[in-house]
Amino acid sequence: MTELELQKLREFRGALKRASEENPELLATPALRRFVNDACLARYLRARNWKVKKALKMLTHTLKWRARTRPDSITWRDVAKEGSTGKQYVPGVDVKGRNVLVMRPGRENSKEHAGNIRFLVYMLEKATWREDAPEHPPLGQAADHSSEKLVILIDFSGWTLSTAPPMKTSKETLSILQDHFPERLAVAVCYNPPWIFAVFWKAISPFIDPVTYRKIRFVNPKREKEMKRMGAMFDMKNVIESDMGGEVDPTFDLAKFAAENNALDARRKEVMALCE
Fold first, then answer.
1. How far apart, in whole angstroms, are the C-alpha atoms of residue 76 and residue 61?
2. CA–CA separation, 167 and 162 (whole Å)
3. Is the pLDDT of residue 38 over 90?
4. Is the pTM here over 0.90, yes or no?
């Protein structure tokens, strides 16, 4: 970080301290206090062009949201039903070491708004969680942010308007990504969207902020140039399934997925206990 950026970070930390003294609920729990490490504050500053007041307003909104939803307390047991079809999972990292969150809306198994949002938050927390978060250094504007980013790969194979989530769910999904996980999305790859997707895209795109919009890429598997571009982004042999042009068996192993999530939940619980 530059000296000016470090100064902004110190100002932000001071502003947050004053805000929490005026409203103790902002940092009322160990989880909330752990959340606001220096790396987190730097992300909010970058998201608001290093404007401390704007960053504080955004962070305050997130802290209130996290106090209500308690995303750090959601476990696999809470979302097992929504996750049982493999509609979201983290198969590994991309070529830059960024976690890849795969979404397969064609495997949607529920239209229940609260449950789907809870599962989304669980997966975003999983994809961005760091055991050493409090020690992770804050990153300035010019730094390589790969260690903090994730890539979302959305496979639209089998997607129809009937399986599309309600507009309420889609809008809240965007809000969560844009408002509460700032500076986390590196790129969102939309793979094989059908022609009818244009109807849904026209309805949802006005709610996508310009920064997020510029990070969205569309890949048509019938276009060799687009597939080569996708191949340059991902480890097609070890991470991407064969039905998306890779070499991994696309069969979803629920038992393995559940065991992986339960293990992570147990470790997160251990780490969070140390914060109390």
1. 26
2. 12
3. yes
4. yes
